[in-house]
Amino acid sequence: MIHNDNTPALDTAKVSRGALFCILILIFLSFTQISEAAPTGQLAYAVNGFDENLGRFDWNLYATAIKGTNDLKAVALNHKGMYPAWEPNGDLLYFIQWHGGQSDVYSINPDNPKNKKRITPISGTYRFLTASPNGKYLAFNGWTMEQLPQDNQIWLLDLKTGEMEAVTQVPHFGWPYSFWGISWAPNGRRLAFSLSRPGWLEHLYILDIETKEIEILTELNKDFYPVWSPDGRRILFFRWNREFDTFCTIDIESKAIVPLFDVDKATGYWADWSPEGDYMIYSRWGTVYLYDFASGETEELVEIDGSVFVIAWLRDIRILPVEPKKKLVTTWGNIKHK
């Protein structure tokens, strides 16, 4: 007698269908998580406004954690300061503080902001601060108290030795040229910066830190505040126009410029990339917005009593122990995703 037993085949088919069902569920959950993903990280920025703790109008440092919730809190770090820049791992926040007509670079631990440390060995007039990706150097522009404004250059500060070195030799011909932003490339080998030239034009440049060679990126325009993308392929910048201004990106290799959107003039715009490069955050006076590169949509994140000056976005979320006595955050927009 011949007996046909199809049970193993049926079991195999059931297992295959079960495995396929599990895979489909995992794929569905993955897409759900992607679609519901929200930006996270830590923002640091300076605010020009009255601070209850400091008791004066000044540029004061604040931080805000983005956790994908509807409850953003601005934490006052209670330090007068401008041009905040995160150490790559987030343990320190660097900034420039003015005192007696001069300035220095300082650092604080954002978890314990009372411990302020002076970084620069000599005071001067310094602006536009950026930290190297390996956390070993700071770059900023300016001149020391022993120099003249015409000696304005880009400096590298070795955080281990405390030594400062001017890495540009821009000829001034007696005219104090101004820098308008500095940003470190993710590979750590180059700096992007904006520099004013004769004719009141501001061009974008790239400096090779090792060779000291300078490459020009843009010409015949007024281009400000370059910020290098996390993947190192593009630079975000701000282009001045007669009737309006425009946020743009430029491809490092092809030099192709892509305008993002126009904004009204003279309203204090500052911007930074999200750590993953899929969003841009920018300020307009005291309001901070989030721009989605994929959808082209803009959402209002936070409204602050004062004027925001420079925004730095850190990847890691830090839970700051200090809660603000007075809420500066009033709104959190619903982030839209395609």
Describe the structure.
The relative contact order is 0.14. The N and C termini lie far apart (63 Å). The protein has one helix at 7-35, and strands at residues 41-51, 56-66, 74-80, 82-86, 93-99, 102-109, 112-118, 124-131, 137-144, 153-158, 164-166, 179-184, 190-197, 201-208, 214-216, 222-228, 234-240, 245-251, 257-263, 269-273, 279-284, 287-292, 298-303, 307-314. The protein is 9% helix and 49% strand. The chain contains 1 helix and 24 strands. It is mostly beta strands and 338 residues long. It has a 4-stranded antiparallel beta sheet, with no helix packed on it. The longest helix is centred in the N-terminal third of the chain and has 29 residues, at 7-35. The protein has one domain: Neuraminidase.
Task: Considering the chains and any ligands shown, give keywords for the structure.
single chain; 338 residues; mainly beta; Neuraminidase; 4-stranded antiparallel β-sheet; disordered C terminus
Topology:
Blueprint: H1 7-35, E1 41-51, E2 56-66, E3 74-80, E4 82-86, E5 93-99, E6 102-109, E7 112-118, E8 124-131, E9 137-144, E10 153-158, E11 164-166, E12 179-184, E13 190-197, E14 201-208, E15 214-216, E16 222-228, E17 234-240, E18 245-251, E19 257-263, E20 269-273, E21 279-284, E22 287-292, E23 298-303, E24 307-314
Antiparallel strand pairs: 1-2, 1-24, 2-3, 4-5, 5-6, 6-7, 8-9, 9-10, 10-11, 12-13, 13-14, 14-15, 16-17, 17-18, 18-19, 20-21, 21-22, 22-23
Number of helices: 1
Portion of residues in beta strands equals: over 45%
CATH 2nd-level architecture: 6 Propeller
CATH topology: Neuraminidase
Overall pLDDT score: 81
What overall geometry do the principal axes of the alpha carbons give? globular
Please write the CATH class name. Mainly Beta
Total strand segments: 24
Write the CATH homologous superfamily.
TolB, C-terminal domain
Give the SSE order as H and E letters.
Answer: HEEEEEEEEEEEEEEEEEEEEEEEE
Low-pLDDT sequence parts: 1-10, 19-36, 317-338
Q: What's the structural domain tally?
A: 1
Structural class: mainly beta
Order the strands across the largest sheet as they lie in space. Answer: 3-2-1-24
Radius of gyration: 24 Å
| Helical residue percent band | under 10%
